[in-house]
């Protein structure tokens, strides 16, 4: 038997017992004729005491960091206890030891605060994984996984595996493809998600399906994206949107409770996509704090049902505002006394290429009720007051105003709001706020894809092509041609206003899940493919199996998928999903430990009948 206990198990209750432990040498401290060793395993650290006699043996067989050591000894109460350690009340007086394996000196210290940089840690990820902080992340991941499975199991969901080698039907992201040796010149694709399979399972009658499953997307990697990532993927039959929202806010609340001990008793807030864009400039707003934006000026086509925040419109006279398509503002609480240096810094911040604004205007709402703005020359005090009213600013607030092109400006104010929220400590790590964003547009305009002759751009599915339109919008979809004749005015096309039966779950400003009620009739699905510019033949070639299945009694169904890695990162209070993946890829999609991707040899290429183009 290698061990009687783990390195995290022993306490004063075992004092006097003879035990055997096995683990890794964390530290070695020599004090004259005796040596202390901290022995580490997954469960904790136990202090070992090598007395004089064994110490001599150690001189012949010296220990080193990360050696694998087995010791037998007696549990003793420690004279100087360490309350930080689980086993801090005791130590083991070693009576015999065996070095099970040696280790070369690790390239970085195996400690919470390691001296290893990112690249080095990824190259030696198996050593990095020995660090307590990384281990805790994986434990959290496992706890989330377990909680999700428990909840779904309790609610009658069945875990059904779906294949990884499937057909390439790119729509959205690019597919990873796998050449088939047995079918020369043909390729499988790795699934971007099990979307069509879970829908087929609904057709087959498995009315509650789930899977914790890998998905593969060959996207350019932005920070915090991985080419392979994990979803908690779910689908249900005979449900309406409301059923799905209830079931899955239940799931997240259950995970909160099980993993973080948090009772999330509040109703999950809901907001339409339009309201989110209107109030926050963003379809995944962080609602831990207010600071909603005031829409001072915006193009009529964007929010047909809305009016500008100032009754008579934004006063004219300031060229920057006059010439801008969109002018939006937020009132930052308690910051009216910002110095010139601070407002200059904010101006630089919005001018950074990632934000891309030309400048920042501001109004200080002084405590005495007066106003001071960066554009005083052009506006009267009364006019500044009107803007302050629109932005719902109080005395003591600083109003920040951005002006420019609609999309960019809205995005920029949303980023600025988050930045100010962070500066003011309003984005508290231990506060969790869930939000459903509903009623997304069904289509998005894409000017790149020009599929059908004479068409200016085309529609792409905002979620995916299997998402059903709102029932009230189906008629609009069926009775209008999808062809966009006038690219500049695509928003005037009836398709631009069609809303989807789609929903996203947002946690603290992060999209953690998204899904939809699906189309389940062949005719509507065909119409959808056509709307996306797919010819009949193409639709049959790519999705004939699904269209066919819809003819054999497909039930109404819908589902959702949660980004498992991201959910773990947020629950773990981290910005990076990589910290929660045992063997992640780096920002260029490489596994630096395996050195993958890599070339394959000519024989392999030959077998696949692949000839590489000369570089
Ligand atoms: N398959 C979808 C996705 O990966 C989620 C869903 O609609 O259930 O985003």
Task: Report on this structure.
The chain starts with 17 loop residues before the first strand and ends in an 8-residue tail after the last helix. It has helices at 52-60, 118-123, 125-128, 132-154, 195-203, 241-260, 273-280, 319-323, 340-351, 381-390, 406-423, 474-479, 522-531, 536-549, 564-571, 602-607; strands at 18-31, 34-41, 44-50, 68-77, 90-101, 158-159, 177-179, 187-189, 208-216, 228-237, 269-272, 294-297, 326-332, 361-365, 371-373, 398-404, 434-438, 443-446, 458-461, 502-507, 510-517, 557-563. The chain is globular and about 90 Å long. The longest helix is centred in the N-terminal third of the chain and has 23 residues, at 132-154. Among the domains are: 12-101, OB fold (Dihydrolipoamide Acetyltransferase, E2P) (Beta Barrel); 289-427, Gyrase A, domain 2 (2-Layer Sandwich), CATH 3.30.1360; 441-499 and 521-554, no CATH class. It has 615 residues and is of the alpha+beta class. The chain has an eight-stranded mixed β-sheet, with helices on both faces. It contains 16 helices and 22 strands. Helices cover 27% and strands 23% of the residues. Helix 4 (132-154) packs across helix 6 (241-260) and helix 4 (132-154) crosses helix 15 (564-571). The structure holds aspartic acid. Aspartic acid is lined by residues 193, 195, 464, 514-516, 559-561.
């Amino acid at each position: 038997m290698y061990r009687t206990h783990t390195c995290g198990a022993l306490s004063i209750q075992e004092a006097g017992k003879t035990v055997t432990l096995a683990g890794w040498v964390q530290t070695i401290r020599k004090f004259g004729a005796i040596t202390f060793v901290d022995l580490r395993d997954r469960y904790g650290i136990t202090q070992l005491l090598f007395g004089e006699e064994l110490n001599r043996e150690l001189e012949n067989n010296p220990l080193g960091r990360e050696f694998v050591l087995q010791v037998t000894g007696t549990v003793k109460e420690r004279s100087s206890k360490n309350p930080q350690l689980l086993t801090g009340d005791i130590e083991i007086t070693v009576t015999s030891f065996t070095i099970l394996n040696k280790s070369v000196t690790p390239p970085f210290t195996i400690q919470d605060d390691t001296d290893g940089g990112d690249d080095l840690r990824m190259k030696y990820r198996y050593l990095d994984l020995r660090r307590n902080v990384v281990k805790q992340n994986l434990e959290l991941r496992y706890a989330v996984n377990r909680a999700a499975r428990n909840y779904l199991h309790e609610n009658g969901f069945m875990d059904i595996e779906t294949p990884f080698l499937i057909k390439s039907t790119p729509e959205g992201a690019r597919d990873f493809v796998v050449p088939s040796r047995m079918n020369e010149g043909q390729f499988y694709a790795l699934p971007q998600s099990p979307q069509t399979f879970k829908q087929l399972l609904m057709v087959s009658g498995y009315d509650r399906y789930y899977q914790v499953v890998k998905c593969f997307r060959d996207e350019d990697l932005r920070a915090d994206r991985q080419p392979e990532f994990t979803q908690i993927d779910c689908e249900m039959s005979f449900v309406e949107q409301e059923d799905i929202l209830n079931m899955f806010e239940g799931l997240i609340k259950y995970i909160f409770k099980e993993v973080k001990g948090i009772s999330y008793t509040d109703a999950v807030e809901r907001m339409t996509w339009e309201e989110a864009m209107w109030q926050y400039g963003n379809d995944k707003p962080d609602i831990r704090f207010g600071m909603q934006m005031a829409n001072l000026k915006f193009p009529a086509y964007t929010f047909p049902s809305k009016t500008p925040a100032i009754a008579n419109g934004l006063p004219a006279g300031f060229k920057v505002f006059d010439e801008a398509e969109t002018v939006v503002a937020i009132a930052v609480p308690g910051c009216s006394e910002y110095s010139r240096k601070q407002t200059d810094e904010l101006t630089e911040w919005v001018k950074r290429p990632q934000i891309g604004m030309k400048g920042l205007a501001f109004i200080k709402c002084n405590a005495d009720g007066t106003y001071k703005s960066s554009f005083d020359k052009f506006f009267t005090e009364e006019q500044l007051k009107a803007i302050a009213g629109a932005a719902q600013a109080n005395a003591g607030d600083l109003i920040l105003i951005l002006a420019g092109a609609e999309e960019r400006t809205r995005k920029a104010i949303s980023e600025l709001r988050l930045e100010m929220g962070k500066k003011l400590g309003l984005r508290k790590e231990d506060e969790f706020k869930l939000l459903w964003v509903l009623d997304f547009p069904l289509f998005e305009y894409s000017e790149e894809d020009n599929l059908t002759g004479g068409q200016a751009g085309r529609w792409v599915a905002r979620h995916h092509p299997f998402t059903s339109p709102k029932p009230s919008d189906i008629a609009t979809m069926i009775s209008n041609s999808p062809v966009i004749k006038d690219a500049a005015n695509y928003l005037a096309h009836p398709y631009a206003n069609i809303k989807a039966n789609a929903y996203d779950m947002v946690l603290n400003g992060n999209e953690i899940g998204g899904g939809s009620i699906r189309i389940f009739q062949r005719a509507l699905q065909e119409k959808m493919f056509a709307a996306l510019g797919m010819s009949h033949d193409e639709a049959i070639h790519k999705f004939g199996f699904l269209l066919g299945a819809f003819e054999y009694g497909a039930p109404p169904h819908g589902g959702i998928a949660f980004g498992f890695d991201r959910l773990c990162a947020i629950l773990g209070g981290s910005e990076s999903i990589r910290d929660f993946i045992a063997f992640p890829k780096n920002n260029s999609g490489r596994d630096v430990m395996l050195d993958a991707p890599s070339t394959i040899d000519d024989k392999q290429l030959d077998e696949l009948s692949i000839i590489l183009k000369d570089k």
